[in-house]
Design a protein that fits this description.
By secondary structure, the protein is an alpha+beta fold. The protein has one domain: 60s Ribosomal Protein L30, Chain: A, CATH 3.30.1330. It has three helices and twelve strands, in the order ββββββαβββαβββα. A five-stranded mixed sheet has the order 1-2-4-11-12, with no helix packed on it. Strands 3-6-5-7-10 form a five-stranded mixed sheet, covered by helices on one side. Strands 8-9 form a two-stranded antiparallel ribbon. The longest helix is centred in the C-terminal third of the chain and has 21 residues. The protein is globular and about 40 Å long. About 40% of the residues are buried.
Length: about 190
C-alpha cells in the first residue's frame, strides 16, 4: 500500500492481495490486469472500501494456481475481509453497493481445470456470483475484455474513474503480472 497526498486529502494505492477501508473523503486506486477490484460503499454511513484480488479461488488442480499466500489474494477471502472491515467502520451490510472492475485477459492464460477459460474470466464469474449470493447490488462495472484498467474510487461521492490502459502501458502491465506470477511460483518451491 502506498499513500500519497491528493488535493486536501490523500490517495491510497493498493496492490494485489490488499484492501483499504475509509470513512474519509480519500481516493483509493489500483492497477488491474486479470485481477478484479471490488469498490464497495455504504451511501448512508459514508464508508468506502476497495480490494484487489488475484484469483477467485485458493486452489485448483493445476499447480500454477496453488498459491500459498495471503488470504486477501483470493476472491471470497478478499470480499469477506473488505466487508468485515467496512462493518467495523460503521457500514451496514444491507446498505452496501458495488462497482467492480478488472478481469482482463492480459496474459491469455487458459486453465484446463477451468474449461479453458482465462484467469480473468473466472474472476469475473466469481464476483458476479458472490455479489448476487450476498445480495449486494452491482451498480456499475467494467469487467473482462483483453485490456488492463487503472481505477480511482472517490470517497466523497462514490464515483469511480476508470482508464483503460493503452498498448504501451499494457505491455508493461503484462510484464509486471508475469514477473509477479513467477515470483509467487518460485516462493512455492
Amino acid at each position: 500500500m502506498n499513500i500519497q497526498p491528493y488535493k486536501n486529502s490523500k490517495r491510497i494505492i493498493i496492490e494485489p492481495g490488499e484492501y483499504y477501508v475509509s470513512s474519509n473523503q480519500e481516493v483509493i486506486s489500483t492497477l488491474l490486469g486479470s485481477c478484479v477490484a471490488a469498490c464497495l460503499y455504504d451511501p448512508v454511513r459514508g464508508v468506502t472500501g476497495m480490494n484487489h484480488f488475484l484469483l477467485a479461488y485458493r486452489s485448483r488442480q493445476d499447480p500454477y494456481l496453488k498459491l500459498n499466500s495471503e488470504a486477501g489474494r483470493y476472491g471470497v477471502h478478499a470480499m469477506e475481509l473488505l466487508i468485515h472491515s467496512m462493518v467495523l467502520r460503521g457500514a451496514k451490510k444491507r446498505h452496501l453497493k458495488a462497482k467492480c472492475f478488472g478481469g482482463g485477459d492480459v496474459l491469455s492464460i487458459a486453465e484446463s481445470s477451468w474449461e479453458n477459460r482465462g484467469i480473468g474470466d473466472v474472476n469475473v464469474d466469481f464476483i458476479h456470483k458472490y455479489l448476487k449470493s450476498e445480495k449486494i447490488p452491482l451498480i456499475s462495472s467494467s469487467l473482462g475484455g483483453r485490456h488492463g484498467r487503472n481505477i480511482h474510487f472517490m470517497g466523497h461521492d462514490f464515483s469511480v474513474f476508470m482508464k483503460k490502459i493503452n498498448s504501451g502501458v499494457e505491455h508493461q502491465v503484462q510484464l509486471e503480472e508475469k514477473k509477479y506470477w513467477k515470483k509467487v511460483l518460485q516462493s512455492m518451491k
